Amino acid sequence: MNEILERLKQLDLGIETIVPIKGGDINDAFRLESFDKKYFLKVNSSANFPNLLKKEARGLDALNKTNTFSTPKILNIGEIGKDFQYLLLEWIETSTPTIIDWENFGRNLAKLHQNTAKQFGWNEDNYMAIVLQPNKQTDSWSEFYANNRIMPMMKLLQNKQLITSKQVKSAENMCKQLGSIFPKEKPSLIHGDFWNGNILANQEGDFTIIDPAIYYGHREMDIALAKLFGGFDDAFFDAYQEAFPLEKNSEERLPIAQLFPLLIHAYLFEGYYVKDVQTILKKF
């Protein structure tokens, strides 16, 4: 940590105070304070999660270039051997969002999702939390979701003996049906880890987006994750639906779209989330 602070001194930020921040399960986080400014620093192991924070920074930059969301400014990023990687961001002061803020946020997500590509995937693999997610580009969502999301996670859970071979078979059966479950749409640029912990209502009447797991995917993935853990006002979903209506029967597809983040949480936290995974797979 001292080595990181020595590097940051070169930026001439006048840092006087370092305050550890609790609540992060993934990174060690700190608020750095100077005479008149605050900064956010996150730190992790370079060896355990190679390029985790560089990939995050590239995701933030890609989101910023769409001119749809506010993202924190990237002030510095680096590595110190295999021990540390760090990312320094501007500090975001938060506030309580209004209904209008939520409506604008819903419309902004709709705008983000209208950034499309020819193929599903991304130009590099990246992370959701600390789990590396493959982003090999494919022509169909069903192929991408099966081979880059569902089955790799099923194998990881099976290796930890959290699920059975019968449940793996159920997942394989589900993947064979994905082409008829999801409507055909162009690949949309999505945040990828769109839960309420990764959105900050800022003091400008807007939302700042953090911790992306960005790729071109099916846009219902962001909506499904927003609904999985709650914390989003109904005005957000109503505004999104008005701006960019989801195809019919989207509620019926919700558990299938929520399966991937549940697999991630089952892998990271085990317990309760494994039961959710098993419930969804029983149907197949």
Automatic annotation (TrEMBL):
Keywords tagged on the record: Kinase, Transferase
Domain of life according to the entry: Bacteria
Alphabetized Pfam families for the sequence: Fructosamin_kin
The family this protein is said to belong to: Belongs to the fructosamine kinase family.
Protein name per the record: Aminoglycoside phosphotransferase
Originating species: Chishuiella changwenlii
